[in-house]
Amino acid sequence: MKRIGILGGTFDPPHMGHLIIAEEVRCAIDLDEIWFIPSHTPPHKQASTVSGADRLEMTKRAVEGNPHFRVSDIELRREGTSYTFDTIKALKQNETDAMFYFIIGGDMVEDLPNWYGIHELLELVQFVGVKRLGHELSSELPVKKVNIPFVDISSTDIRKRAISGQTFRYFVPDSVAHYIKEHGVYAGKS
């Protein structure tokens, strides 16, 4: 049975922290692959600031070179609110010989009991929690915990830097930085 980690998010933009989390979890629990899934409209966050097409392309560029990483546009194609329950159900229908591990930060672990369809979801996927500053990895629900190096990089900070003309080199892979600059992804945003 194939063991697949799922890392969802707006990826607005994808950054080195996302890649470090994915690789650390992959190695820690011996996953075959990590699938990055850009969300259309996350239920727990503000909507993204750029198009799904831009976020998808940046995510593809971010994972280039790692044979264990791939990108899925399943939530962007579905549109509407990106509920994990709907995504995992669809993935399970397409990948019948796979076990899925859904990777979430400590902030999401705390909110897990409030997720849409959580009890059915727990039968479909193993949640994997990674430590995030200011959040504990405690939940009454079954969550596999993985310790990762703490990297304090946020997409919000990268966007602010891009908008104000500050450097964000080494916050994102070079291929993502080039895309942001070439396409003016955050130009004119405030």
Structure characterization notes:
This protein has 190 residues and is of the alpha/beta class. It has a single domain (2-153), classed as HUPs (Rossmann fold). Helices cover 39% and strands 18% of the residues. It contains eight helices and six strands. A six-stranded parallel β-sheet has the order 3-2-1-4-5-6. The longest helix is centred in the first third of the chain and has 13 residues, at 16-28. The mean pLDDT is 90.
What's the alpha carbon Rg, rounded to whole Å? 16 Å
Helicity level: 25-40%
Question: For the record, what is the CATH homologous superfamily label?
Answer: HUPs
Number of helices: 8
CATH topology: Rossmann fold
Strand proportion, as a percent range, falls in: 15-25%
* Number of separate strands: 6
